[in-house]
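Attaching the record inline, Q. Sequence:
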Amino acid sequence: MNGIVIALIFVGGGIGSVLRYLIGLPFKQGNISLPLGTLLANISAAIIIAITFALANKSNLSPRTLFFLTTGLCGGLSTFSTFSWETIQLFQQQQFGWAITNILVTNIACIGLIAAISSIK
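Structure, as predicted:
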């Protein structure tokens, strides 16, 4: 892997991380038990990665573009670790319904969106 690809992943990851932070800001002040900021960030990343690979299959996206958008941008935007932490906190707070909801909605939405978008011809 050359330096240009690493730089593109670095820049994409930075952009994705800032987007994740900005998406979560409106939800920091609320009393909502479901971690909506993390959910929306993960759903956004799932949509972007599905569209990217759908476009890559139909056109000739360069490997550099793919690394920038998938490993970089989506890697910085999505967050399995925060999702896991927030889910464990919900369990520890005995908010079992919200914890299970978070697990189901995140997985069904992300996998479902990728499946739906990637099946578009």
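The chain has one domain: 3-118. The CA atoms of residues 33 and 95 lie 8 Å apart.

More tomorrow.
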